[in-house]
Every structure is written in structure tokens, then in C-alpha cells.
């Protein structure tokens, strides 16, 4: 999903 | 996961663990800014609100737990440990929290990707992380010399930031829809703050002498 594609980053 | 991201996470992890282990071993926190450490603890606490609600990977969950545990342990050592706390120089660590925290709260409320509690807190953590090193840099300037501990710590943090920028560039070209202006701009600001420090760090390393920052 576009909105959360970077939420796997710390 | 790409090599830049993994290397970035590892240098970030190393910076926190090196600091914690050294404080534990030498029973001293001389030269370390408690304010910066408390701000980092707040950064992790507000960013990882999703830790029990959104499962991303085992790696992700474990890393989050390590960052939360180690950052709060460092704060505990400096504040509570009966020997370590004596080496904390409160009079030199004078940066005011409000100058950092209030602008970050304000910015997070008006500039965010989504106006929800979790998203605003996540955005706040990004803004706060960008400037949380300021009390430490001010302390370095004030004491005008840094030992190996502080030098390695700030060096590892700077390496982590630089590697994350490479990670973003890599992901931008390899993943569809990977556009995140807020973390990118906050991350670039944070990396620039290290630039000045790095200049003096390399200069002193090249001349093989103790680092002296200008007044």
C-alpha cells in the first residue's frame, strides 16, 4: 500500500 | 530489505549498544548529553506505537524492542545508577527541551500524511529525531573536546543517517509508489546537522590528534 510502504523502516 | 538499509540499521544499533555497553563498563557517562538520550527515548516510544498492532516482520519487532530497551536503559543509567549518575555534568547540558519539542509538536500537527493519532505521533518522532542530537552537539562544543566514546557514538549515528539516504534512493528506483517526503526531508536535515561535526572529526583523525571543536 502506498501510504505504508515506508513503515517497515526503523 | 536492501544492503544500505541493513547496514544503516546495524550502524544505528551499534551506536546505541556501544554507548550502553561503555556506560555499563566504565561506569561513567562523562560527555554524554542526557537531554539527547531522553529525546531519543521519546523518539522510539512515539514511533513504535504500532509495535503490538501491526506485525511487519520478526526482524522489525525485535529491532524495535532493542531500540526501546536500550534507549530507556541509557536514560536509567544516567539518571538513576548510583555511580554513573555522579559523572553526569548537569550544568553543561543546558539545552532547553521546549525549543526542540514544541516546534516538533506544532509541525507534526500541521504537516503530516494523515491526521490520525498514530500518524501524528509517527511524524512527530521523525521531526524530533532530526534535531534530537542538538543538545549533544552543544555539549561537545561547550566542553571543546570529545573522547573516543562520544566520537564513535556520533560517528556511528552519522553513518546510519547517510546509509538511510542511500536506502531511500535505492527504494525509490526499485519500488513502485515509494515516495515519502516527510521522512526524507527530516532525514536530510538530520544528516546535515552531522556534516559540521564530521568535518572536525575527520580533520582530527587525519592529523591524529584529539578532536577540538571551534567555539
From TrEMBL, chain B:
Show the GO cellular component annotation of the record. Answer: endoplasmic reticulum membrane
Q: Where in the cell is it found?
A: Endoplasmic reticulum membrane
Q: Which domain of life is it from?
A: Eukaryota
| Gene Ontology molecular functions | ER retention sequence binding
Q: Where are the transmembrane segments?
A: 55-77, 97-115, 121-140, 152-170, 182-202
Topology relative to the lipid bilayer, per the entry, is: Multi-pass membrane protein
Record-linked Pfam families: ER_lumen_recept
Please provide the record's keywords in A-Z order: Endoplasmic reticulum, ER-Golgi transport, Membrane, Protein transport, Receptor, Transmembrane, Transmembrane helix, Transport
UniProt-listed GO biological process terms: protein retention in ER lumen; protein transport; vesicle-mediated transport
According to its UniProt record, where is this protein mainly located?
endoplasmic reticulum
Which InterPro entries does the record cross-reference, listed alphabetically? ER_ret_rcpt
Record keyword Transcription present: no
Asked if the record carries the keyword Glycosyltransferase, the reply is no
Against PANTHER family, the record matches this protein to: ER LUMEN PROTEIN RETAINING RECEPTOR
* Family label: Belongs to the ERD2 family.
Protein name as annotated: ER lumen protein-retaining receptor
Amino acid at each position: 500500500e502506498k501510504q505504508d510502504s515506508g513503515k517497515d523502516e526503523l | 530489505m536492501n544492503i544500505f538499509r541493513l547496514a544503516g540499521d546495524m550502524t544505528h544499533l551499534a551506536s546505541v549498544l556501544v554507548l550502553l555497553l561503555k556506560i555499563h563498563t566504565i561506569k561513567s557517562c562523562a560527555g554524554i548529553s542526557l537531554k539527547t538520550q531522553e529525546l531519543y527515548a521519546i523518539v522510539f516510544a512515539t514511533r513504535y506505537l504500532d509495535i503490538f498492532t501491526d506485525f511487519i516482520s520478526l526482524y522489525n519487532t525485535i529491532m524495535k524492542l532493542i531500540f526501546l530497551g536500550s534507549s530507556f536503559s541509557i536514560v536509567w543509567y544516567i539518571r538513576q545508577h548510583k555511580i554513573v549518575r555522579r559523572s553526569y555534568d548537569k550544568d553543561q547540558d543546558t539545552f532547553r527541551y521546549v525549543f526542540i519539542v514544541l516546534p516538533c509538536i506544532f509541525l507534526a500537527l500541521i504537516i503530516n500524511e494523515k491526521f490520525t493519532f498514530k500518524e501524528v505521533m509517527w511524524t512527530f518522532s521523525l521531526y524530533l529525531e532530526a534535531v534530537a542530537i542538538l543538545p549533544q552537539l552543544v555539549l561537545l562544543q561547550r566542553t571543546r573536546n570529545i573522547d573516543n566514546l562520544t566520537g564513535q557514538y556520533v560517528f556511528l549515528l552519522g553513518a546510519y543517517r547517510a546509509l538511510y539516504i542511500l536506502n531511500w534512493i535505492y527504494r525509490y528506483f526499485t519500488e513502485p509508489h515509494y515516495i515519502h517526503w516527510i521522512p526524507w526531508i527530516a532525514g536530510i536535515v538530520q544528516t546535515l546537522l552531522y556534516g559540521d561535526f564530521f568535518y572536525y572529526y575527520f580533520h582530527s583523525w587525519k592529523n591524529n590528534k584529539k578532536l577540538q571543536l571551534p567555539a
